[in-house]
């Protein structure tokens, strides 16, 4: 089943279950308006077909990735005629928002695979790439929801690596991403042109040891503030503790969220626990994720990442990872 047909099927199912009484065309039109994407903007089976049938798809899709789902969904629901809506406003907003989030998630995975293809063309052996936020669906969903928050403007992250987390922030709605990257692997610098080509003037990376570059950056631009601070750099105790300390002056006091990745790993867990014990931060929640090698668009796997259960056979190892969410105090 193609992705576009899958979404059409999803729309029909939700329309039926929620009591839509309008035609299929009206329901599809509501979805198109909510997603901000025309029916002609399809995700074709391969790049050649996409460019041939819809040469402006890439720019059209990317232009709408910054949409705020709840704002857009509320507008769409308010404009739906009673004969089509057939349900209370809150339910309409919630369900249309969910559909938009799923669409954006699918687009992130498409862009991510484009990034992987780009890196391979540049001679990068993908199995050698560290991290890969692609592979932790629960983490991806959690980070996506953070980036979609209407108060999120700037994301500051330690650990650009191959650019997948940066791609997620930008594709999900953050206006700007500031990354600090050690740069020990060549694929980090190779990924930068791809990110800039997809999201021009919205991304900045500072190369070097974050224990030095973050304080230096803050000294040069003391007014820079971050709504999301993502700590995913060196996983030794002194690296994690140093990043937590050095990023603290850069948090936006009006609104910020602190995210610390891999808090199940000993040194990071210890640093995070000790940092909190000093009264410098508070943990508000934890997300656990299983490592999976399912990729959207892979033959035979298709739509398994779109709100469906992950096939247990796709879990390649007993590899679970946690991500903590909180705030600076």
From TrEMBL:
The keyword Signal applies. Keywords: Signal. It holds the Pfam family Methyltransf_24. This is Uncharacterized protein. It comes from Triparma strigata. Residues 1-19 form the signal peptide. It comes from the Eukaryota. InterPro entries: SAM-dependent_MTases_sf. Gene3D superfamilies: Vaccinia Virus protein VP39.
């Amino acid at each position: 089943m193609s992705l576009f047909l899958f979404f059409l099927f999803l729309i029909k199912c939700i329309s039926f279950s929620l009591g839509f009484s309008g035609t299929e065309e009206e329901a599809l039109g509501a979805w198109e308006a909510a997603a901000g994407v025309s029916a002609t903007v399809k995700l074709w089976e391969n790049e050649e077909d996409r460019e041939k049938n819809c040469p402006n798809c890439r720019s059209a899709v990317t232009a709408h990735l910054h949409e705020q789902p709840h704002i857009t969904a509320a507008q769409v629901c308010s404009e739906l005629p009673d004969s089509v809506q057939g349900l209370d406003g809150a339910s309409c907003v919630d369900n249309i928002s969910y559909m938009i989030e799923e669409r954006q998630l699918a687009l992130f995975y498409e862009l991510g695979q484009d990034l992987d293809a780009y890196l391979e063309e540049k001679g990068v052996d993908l199995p050698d790439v560290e991290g890969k936020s692609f592979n932790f669906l629960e983490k991806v969903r959690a980070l996506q929801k953070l980036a979609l928050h209407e108060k999120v403007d700037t994301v500051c992250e330690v650990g650009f690596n191959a650019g997948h987390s940066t791609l997620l922030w930008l594709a999900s709605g953050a206006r700007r991403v500031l990354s600090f990257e050690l740069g020990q692997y060549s694929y980090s610098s190779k990924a930068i042109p791809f990110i800039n080509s997809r999201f021009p003037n919205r991304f900045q990376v500072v190369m070097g040891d974050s224990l030095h570059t973050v304080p230096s950056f803050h000294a040069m631009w003391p007014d820079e503030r971050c709504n999301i601070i993502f700590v995913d750099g060196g996983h030794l105790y002194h690296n994690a503790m140093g990043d937590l300390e050095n990023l603290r002056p850069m948090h936006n006091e009006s609104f910020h969220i602190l995210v610390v990745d891999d808090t199940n790993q000993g040194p990071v867990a210890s640093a995070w626990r000790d940092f909190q014990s000093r009264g410098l931060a508070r943990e508000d929640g934890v997300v656990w994720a299983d490592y999976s090698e399912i990729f959207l668009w892979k033959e035979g796997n298709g739509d398994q990442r779109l709100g469906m259960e992950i096939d247990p056979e796709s879990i390649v190892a007993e590899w679970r990872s946690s991500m903590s969410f909180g705030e600076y105090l």
